[in-house]
Amino acid sequence: xxxxxxxxxxxxAAMAVTAFAGCGKxxxxxxxxxxxxxxxxxxxxxxxxxxxDAAIYGTAVKNGMELAIKEINEAGGIGGVQVxxxxxxxxxxxxxxxxxxxxxxxxxxxMLIGTxxxxxxEAVVAESHNDNLFQITPSGTSINSVKYDNAFRMCFSDPAxxxxxxxxxxxxxxxxxxxxxxxxxxxxxxGIYENFAKEAKNQGLEIVAAEAFTSExxxxxxxxLQKAKDAGAEMVFLPxxxxxxxxxxxxAKEMGYAPSFFGxxxxxxxxxxxxxxxxLAEGLMLLTPFxxxxxxxxxxxxxKAYKDAYGETPNQFAADAYDSxxxxxxxxxxxxxxxxxxxxxxxxxxxxxxxxxxFTGLTGTNITWGEDGEPTKEPIAVKIENGAYVFM
Amino acid sequence: MRHLQKTxxxxxxxxxxxxxxxxxxxxxxxxxxxxxxxxxxLVPLCAYMILAISLxxxxxxxxxxxxxxxxxxxxxAFASAFFSKMTAGTMPDGLRFFFALLIxxxxxxxxxxxxxxPVLRLRGDYLAIVTLAFGEIIKNxxxxxxxxxxxxxxxxxxxxxxxxxxxxxxxxxxxxxxxxNGTPKxxxxxxxxxxxxxxxIIILNLINSRAGRAxxxxxxxxxxxxxIGINITKFKLMAFSISAALAGVAGVLYAHNLSxxxxxxxxxxxxxxxxxxxxxxxxxxxxxRGSLIAAFILxxxxxxxxxxxxxxxxxxxxxxxxxxxxxxxxxxxxxxxMVAERxxxxxxxxxxxxx
Lengths: 392, 355
What we know:
Chain B: Keywords: Cell membrane, Membrane, Transmembrane, Transmembrane helix. The complex is a heterodimer of chains A (392) and B (355). Chain A has 392 residues and is an alpha/beta fold.
């Protein structure tokens, strides 16, 4: 009995020691490598959900980033220096996001493209701020995602999308009475709704119904649509991702309710959704920074390369990540950073360079960044006609 | 030492393990030998270990299956994070965190009593289902609260943050489903270990006290316990609320480790409750030291397996099944003895092989 106890104690102790010693060794080995020869590559990390409900977004970001970095390396790298990248899964969770960030730090990451989702981004940005590590989020839309000076954003922020949507609807006189259906459990959806509501008041639009749902009750929307119908809304604003929106469109048709629908960038991709009857989306308007069907050469090349590499049509997450990698390249070349600089030195140089560059990519032309990390770019509105996106 | 009671000795071994681990990790990290990943995991580890031993009090000692433990953690986390946000800058960090801990524990304990009164009348599966429901209710209720502060005081709404009508100096503190952002990072590994030690002392002393024996008698035979005059409701509530308060402490640690706190299904939903239950069941129901070790291993494991990318989910599940079989099935028990025998044999192989 006693021996067994001692044995189990020894086993546990051995396990703990190997677990910790293993990590310790790895790091010290890396330290030596870093200091003696100086790494001859830039190390860019990425984080996003590769498993779980939001895996589709994380995978898109990973692919977009991978594609861009491959191209950059083939074209000679950043200022002649090759780039290494590594992508870690964060399951769209704040706690796992910090773990993923720390894993990348152990790998000696110098710059971060991430995180993909807002919730995890808010936790990670506090950590990267402590380390003064340069971070650009391709798709973290909430305000707090870039609240520190080391963080920048590629996509529109939630407030920007909500405000711009309301302004767009008012300017083009699309509707006067509007119903909103939004996901109250989602930072993205909620953030857009709140700012849409604020701006709608200023623009003289009337919100006749604001109906919420959560990620746990996102299958049946008859109640929300019925309320919108009863309130006599001419337009239903849908600040959400396309999977839920497709259900709403189908339900509305079933109910014989035909207002006009207006969405945000999360709606992009609805036409490529499996088993979705594209005729349902006829007349749907959406604001998006990126459209697969855009005619310019850059987009066409990107879509083709992406399809060749991963066998699917890229969405805006992939485009944002692709642009993020090129933004890093542009800013890094402007700042003239070297791979043997410390993380803080790179962070300081990149912060300054980011406000000085002007960038044209897939998701916008002549994009500039302010010190607050927000991009300035024009949104593009598209309408779905005959199963294809048409610019408005 | 020899005249110490067996349980006392066992308890001191448990304290010893915790203190030793704390000292070893502290030495390693001050020597810079701990990677950032492990460094970042230390505080969550403490929080999960506290959760595991506190749930073991209900499941193992009281003998009731509770599936809503994450709900109490959630209450503790939000109450304390709200307090810390409100008082940020008005008092020293250490003092603020001390109060935050007290508030988190008190709030969760209070919820434990409130929920315990109706819930503990049930038994077995019914109790499990109702606690599961209460855990979800807590999470969903927190998700509809919007609280903001401006020059004219506190604003409260259950609709959205626009309805708070804050003036220009206003700041939204609790933002519904987006939770609380910017909680000060007060949790450290040493505080976490200290709290774990306190939680251990509370639980182990409770188990070996008069009240603890009463609680265990309810577990073993409710009718017999009632017949000798044990106040069932009182002791059940006692175990339940102490367990809830300790879960609240774990929540405080958790909330003050990450700068954003969201009552998402992932962090405070039933998945988390079941996760804590897995720690307890794997470590052994009623075995406090086992819970500690199980929580430690199962928190580290998925992160250690990161190198396997997506396969880690599969491997994690397989390892969990294997550990469960090895530890708790009859065949596994024999296997364990065989392995132990073999290991003992390795030390003196000659005597073994001759036979």
